[in-house]
Amino acid sequence: MCGRVFVKSTIPDMVRRFEFAHPGDVERLGNGFPVWNGAPSLTYPIIVREELSTSMAGFVSAKWGLVPGWARDGGGRPPPVNARCETIASNGMFRKAYAARRCLVPVDGYFEWQKLDVSGKKKQPYAIAMKDDEPFAMAGVWEEYADKATGELIRTFAVVTCEPNTLMATIHDRMPVILAPADYMRWLGPELDPRDLMKPYPSELMKMWPIDRKVGSPRNNTPDIIDEIGVGPNDLFDV
User: Fold this and answer.
1) Are 47 and 57 in contact (CB under 8 A)?
2) Which end of the chain, N or C, is surrounded by fewer C-beta atoms within 10 Å?
């Protein structure tokens, strides 16, 4: 799965790095970034196709945790933050968004936890990023629902996940779908089922390193969250 990210770029930097997309309304998020320990329910910059009939892309802001348009007042249960690529085209929660509302989720990296015992209570957190430290885009899907009280349209998204590559398989059985830049516009395009894009990203282009357990609390949101640590018996912790 993918349930925590870091965005060490400022909003202007992110817009410059993904210059094919119009800045849109994301400048208002500027005071909230960088985010060193980004959790679901927060609002992030994502990239969507501006109109179904065009090939133009633009940044918009959206809350992490997908709520379909038919949900009343945002739904009741916690919204899903991930969509499995194997069932995304058939799952009623995601299939319409997958067919018509796909998005890019730009980040600098994400976090994952390796289980270190059978119970799953002892885990070691890792940070994962590109080997060249450049930001990258995870595949996502997005939706909108109307706030019951105000009528305001609330945009939400989920990150698509797939089987792990050989690097990620050493710590977890899933990873986010990471798209190559050459595939960005195809993922955003009108194609109903670009299934072949939902595959593990090449291990040789990625890196990961162990980090401190304080990443477990989203309240800890400082640059040292992604500092590498040595891994030993004292690094194990209960979650």
Assistant:
1) yes
2) C
DSSP strand pairing (21-22 vs 57-64): parallel
The strand ranges marked E within 8-101 are 21-22, 35-38, 43-49, 57-64, 82-84
b/e per residue, 1-21, with b = 16+ CB within 10 A? bbbbbbbbbebeebbeebeeb
Please count the other Cβ atoms lying within 10 Å of the Cβ belonging to residue 89: 14
Three-state SS at 189: coil
Task: Say how far apart CA 61 and CA 27 lie, in whole Å.
Answer: 9
CA pair distance 215, 219, nearest whole angstrom: 9
What is the signed CA dihedral for 95, 101, 102, 106, rounded to 10 degrees? Answer: -130
The per-residue pLDDT for 236 is 43
Which tokens hold the place of 104? 């890019």
Question: Distance between CA 31 and CA 229 in Å, rounded?
Answer: 29
| Domains in the chain, CATH or no CATH each | 5-238 (3.90.1680.10)
pLDDT, tens digit (0-9, with 9 covering 90-100), for 151-205: 888 999 999 999 999 999 999 999 999 999 999 999 999 999 999 999 999 999 9
Is the separation of the CB atoms in 148 and 161 below 8 Å?
Answer: no
